[in-house]
């Protein structure tokens, strides 16, 4: 059976047993405790926990999963993977041990047709019920039912408390050389090499409390996990998962790309296996909406992708290749998982962009790493690792991988100390240390006072001063001072979620202050940075707080427009688009989002039109408060990395946009007025940026462009419509003139060089030419002129430009047996403070110290005299 047949037969078998077959869930779980879906049961965790009632009592799935806890073993063993498929059948308070065991045995022996004599079973040591079912109902001999301890055969809760229970596994005897103790029969208890676990039945029948005590669950569940890759290897009679039909087409593609054959050497085999595994992980992660970054899921993807690239370099790669391997993954698995076929271009483009970025790092860093390895005996010191990371951005985990291959350890503790010292220097330079002291004051206040934001409902409010802070808390502040002030209730929106803070005024009897900024120094506290204009502000004083209304309205227009832009991007570009950062200010909005290529003019127009259409429709902007779970189930967009409480605020534009958001918004899309994109650009690999304006700012932007066009038209003496043709003609004329100037310049320099006399050194003609502001290409051409038709001649041409110097040395072929251009160029490189090299008759060098040209010429002369 091939793997597709195994997958299909599993689901069909359990469908005949009354199970509802469900599609695989995303690799991105709806679970704040997990970055990825690590097992088939993850999508059903709320059911196992009793938080959600199941729609179906029996379910079967083939779930795509991702784990990185053993990433260093991937490719080095036959079984370890990052991405894998987990076959699973689940019972939610329906059948239990008897049916689960009988059906597992029936499928393994009758559908997969594995020989019964090669199958062994393990159970939890105290699970007599499972023992009896295996022995009496299935007929497994007692000696092949192995009782095991809690560390291997008891599935603990996902956390300190929760559902748990014993498990029972089916193991297959691979018949390989025994590695168990001498004189002892090999069993799954003492031989990892000979026996392979292919099936795990978890009997979720207990709840573990805070004290570690187990209590019987009123509703018992079954959670089965069977790795498709392992089953395929057993059924297909191969010794490694990587030799199954799941991987063969991928490895064949690698062989074509690298010009190697699987099986040539174990070192190459490891790299081919790592790349094949990691290409599967990269493909499925990007398809499920993960993009390379330096945080959380994006960091894991970047780490996996870079490990693959590094192994490609070991196989001789010097340019991006992984996107081609991802193509092979899509061709192999696209029919089963159509989302990867649908997002083929996205996967290829994101992967290639990240590869190109990393190749610049790795090719430089590997040279330095090889040098470090040569000088390291047992341990790579932390200072070397830090230098490699700090200079080239070379990932420490790749250094750890390489070190393990070489049998070396890495001093990660010293590396972390150096990193912390760097972070400390950075904190001091940014005054983070002082900020940390400040936060403690606010944390103490938060323990006794509850600060409320009332700015959704009103823009003016009266409240009481609870804290005044300069370098420390004080009782009062006078005119001319800038202080931080906390009041009990405030209408001022504090900067967060990309939205800038409100500004306005704080007034009291005989005094007033301008509120420059509002921020949240610690959870539950809103502080105001105020400049006291007159009077004295005292602790406990009643004050009137007045928000700048026009600024607030402008900011609200831009914030609602940001939501509309986000929705429009997803509609035009696809649902892989995710917000990656934003700025909502009164004068403009900036929106960063995940996408793999620049937007076309047509796409930008479509996005702009979509947003303006919603504005023209004057749709109501509804704001509701509801539970986080309810909001997400209804389709509200939650931003990854944001922290949400149990109750969230949902901002909704009917039939267009729905997001979790704590910002301020207009009440009707018509209030936005208009929307105009100013520019679209790249931020980093896989992340784009759009900046736009709304309302009167959009009108101002258009008027500014009109004014610029009109002034340009006046300069040309034309209409605005004729400007493109006039500019095109001007550019073409300018290019023609530049070409003519270059030709004249070349003629002049050629005449100058030909007229320059050569110095006679023995029987050699030595000509030195120093030029100003000549590019390297022109310098090469001039070297041809200088050496043309000469015999026993050496030419050194220097070009000085902006404190930099380029050097070209030419030596006629009748002298290269005595002295080479490469030797002479090295003199220049050493003295000029740069590098260079070349052939015997032609060499180049460069540097940053033009003052040393005379010294270079002097040493060249000495060497020429010595040799010729």
Short description:
The protein is of the alpha+beta class.
Task: Walk me through what this model shows.
- About 1% of the residues have low confidence.
- The strands form eight sheets. Strands 1, 2, 3, 4, 5, 6, 7, 8 and 9 form a nine-stranded mixed β-sheet that branches.
- The chain is of the alpha+beta class.
- It contains 24 helices and 35 strands.
- A hairpin with a 5-residue loop joins strand 8 and strand 9.
- It starts with a helix and ends with a helix.
- The relative contact order is 0.04.
Question: What topology emerges from the helices and strands here?
Answer:
Elements lengths: L2 H14 L3 E2 L23 H4 L9 E9 L16 E10 L4 H15 L7 E6 L3 H11 L6 E4 L1 H4 E2 L6 E12 L21 E14 L5 E14 H8 L12 H11 L7 H22 L8 H19 L7 H12 L4 H5 L1 H32 L3 E2 L1 H11 L3 H10 L3 E2 L1 H18 L2 H17 L3 E2 L6 E10 L3 E2 L1 E3 L3 E6 L1 E2 L13 E5 L2 E9 L7 E8 L1 E3 L3 E6 L1 H25 L5 E6 L4 E6 L6 H16 L5 E6 H6 L13 E7 L3 E4 L14 E10 L2 E8 H22 L6 H33 L3 E3 L2 E9 L3 H12 L5 E9 L2 E8 L9 H12 L3 E3 L3 E6 L5 H15 L1
Parallel strand pairs: 1-2, 4-5, 10-11, 12-17, 31-32
Antiparallel strand pairs: 2-3, 3-9, 4-7, 6-7, 7-8, 8-9, 13-14, 13-16, 13-22, 15-21, 16-20, 18-19, 18-22, 19-20, 23-24, 24-29, 25-26, 26-27, 28-29, 30-31, 32-33, 33-35, 34-35
Task: Give me the number of helical elements.
Answer: 24
**What best-fitting shape do the alpha-carbon axes yield?**
globular
Mean of all residue-level pLDDT scores = 89
Q: What can be said about the biggest beta sheet?
A: 9 strands, mixed
- The total strand number stands at 35
Oligomer: single chain
Helix fraction, binned, reads 40-55%
In terms of DSSP E residues, the strand content is 25-35%
Q: Supply Rg.
A: 36 Å
Low-pLDDT segments, ≥5 res: 429-437
Class from secondary-structure proportions: alpha+beta
**How far apart are the termini?**
77 Å
């Amino acid at each position: 059976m091939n793997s597709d047949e195994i997958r299909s037969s599993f689901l069909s078998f359990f469908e005949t047993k009354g199970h509802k077959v469900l599609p695989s869930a995303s690799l991105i779980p709806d679970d704040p405790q997990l970055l990825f879906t690590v097992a088939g049961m993850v999508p059903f965790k709320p059911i196992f926990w009793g938080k959600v009632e199941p729609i179906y009592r029996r379910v079967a799935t083939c779930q795509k999963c991702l784990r990185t806890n053993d990433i260093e073993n991937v490719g080095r063993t036959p079984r370890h993977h990052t991405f894998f498929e987990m076959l699973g059948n689940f019972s939610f308070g329906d059948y239990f041990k008897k049916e689960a065991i009988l059906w597992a045995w029936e499928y393994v022996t009758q559908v997969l047709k594995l020989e019964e004599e090669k199958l062994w079973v393990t159970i939890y040591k105290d699970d007599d019920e499972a023992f009896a079912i295996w022995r009496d109902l299935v007929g497994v001999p007692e000696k092949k039912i192995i009782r095991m301890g809690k560390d291997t055969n008891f599935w603990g809760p996902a956390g300190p408390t929760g559902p748990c229970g014993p498990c029972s596994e089916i193991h297959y005897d691979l018949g390989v050389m025994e590695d168990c103790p001498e004189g002892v029969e090999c069993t799954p208890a003492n031989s990892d090499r000979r026996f392979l676990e292919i099936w795990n039945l978890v009997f979720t029948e207990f709840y573990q409390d805070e004290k570690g005590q187990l209590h019987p669950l009123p509703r018992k569940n079954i959670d089965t996990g069977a790795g498709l890759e392992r089953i395929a290897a057993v059924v297909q009679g191969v010794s490694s998962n990587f030799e199954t039909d799941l991987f063969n087409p991928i490895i064949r593609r690698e062989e074509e790309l690298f010009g190697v054959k699987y099986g040539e050497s174990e070192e190459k085999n490891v790299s081919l296996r790592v790349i094949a595994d990691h290409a599967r992980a990269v493909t499925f992660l990007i398809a499920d909406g993960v993009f390379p970054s330096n945080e959380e899921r994006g960091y894991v993807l970047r780490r996996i992708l870079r490990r693959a690239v590094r192994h490609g370099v070991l196989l001789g790669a010097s340019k991006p290749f992984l996107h081609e391997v991802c193509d092979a993954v899509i061709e192999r698995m696209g029919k089963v998982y159509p989302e990867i076929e649908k997002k083929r271009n996205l996967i290829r483009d994101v992967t290639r962009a990240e590869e190109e970025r990393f190749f610049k790092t790795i090719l430089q860093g590997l040279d330095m790493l090889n040098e470090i390895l040569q000088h390291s005996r047992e341990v790579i010191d932390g200072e070397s690792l830090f230098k490699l990371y700090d200079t080239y951005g070379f990932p420490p985990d790749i250094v750890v991988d390489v070190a393990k291959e070489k049998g070396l350890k890495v001093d990660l503790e010293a590396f972390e100390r150096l990193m912390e010292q760097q972070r400390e220097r950075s904190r001091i330079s940014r005054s983070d240390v002082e900020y940390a002291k400040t936060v403690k004051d606010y944390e103490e206040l938060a323990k006794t006072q509850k600060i409320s934001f009332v700015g959704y409902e009103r823009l003016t409010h009266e409240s009481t001063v609870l804290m005044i802070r300069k370098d420390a808390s004080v009782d009062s502040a006078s005119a001319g001072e800038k202080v931080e002030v906390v009041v009990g209730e405030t209408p001022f929106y504090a900067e967060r979620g990309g939205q800038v803070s409100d500004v306005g005024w704080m007034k009291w009897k005989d005094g007033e202050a301008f509120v420059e900024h509002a921020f949240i120094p610690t959870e539950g506290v809103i502080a105001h940075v105020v400049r006291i204009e007159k009077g004295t502000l005292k602790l406990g004083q009643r004050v009137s707080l007045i928000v700048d209304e026009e600024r607030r309205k402008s900011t609200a227009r831009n914030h609602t427009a940001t939501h509309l832009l986000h929705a429009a991007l997803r509609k035009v570009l696809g649902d892989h688009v995710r917000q990656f950062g934003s700025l909502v200010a009164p004068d403009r909005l900036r929106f960063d989002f995940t996408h793999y290529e620049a937007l076309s003019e047509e796409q930008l127009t479509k996005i702009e039109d979509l947003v303006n259409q919603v504005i023209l429709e004057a749709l109501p902007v509804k704001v509701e408060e509801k539970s986080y779970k309810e909001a997400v189930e209804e389709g509200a967009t939650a931003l990854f990395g944001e922290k949400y409480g149990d109750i969230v605020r949902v901002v909704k534009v009917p039939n267009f946009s729905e997001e979790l958001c704590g910002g301020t918004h207009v009440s009707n899309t018509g209030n936005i007025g208009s929307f105009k994109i100013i520019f679209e650009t790249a931020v980093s690999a896989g992340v784009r940026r759009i900046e736009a304006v709304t309302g009167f700012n959009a009108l101002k932007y258009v008027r500014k462009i009109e004014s610029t066009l009109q002034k340009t038209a006046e300069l040309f003496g034309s209409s605005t419509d004729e400007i493109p043709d006039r500019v095109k003609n001007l550019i073409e004329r300018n290019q023609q003139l530049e070409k003519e100037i270059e030709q004249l310049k070349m003629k002049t320099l050629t005449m100058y060089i030909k007229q320059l006399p050569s110095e006679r050194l023995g029987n050699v003609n030595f000509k030195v030419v120093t030029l100003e502001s000549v590019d390297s290409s022109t310098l090469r051409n001039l070297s041809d002129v200088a050496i043309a038709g000469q015999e026993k001649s050496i030419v050194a041409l220097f070009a000085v430009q902006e404190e930099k110097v380029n050097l070209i040395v030419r030596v006629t072929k009748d002298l290269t047996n005595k002295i080479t251009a490469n030797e002479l160029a090295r003199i220049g490189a050493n003295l000029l403070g740069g590098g260079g090299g070349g052939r015997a008759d032609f060499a180049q060098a460069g540097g940053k110290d033009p003052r040393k040209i005379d010294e270079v010429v002097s040493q060249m002369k000495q060497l020429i005299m010595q040799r010729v």
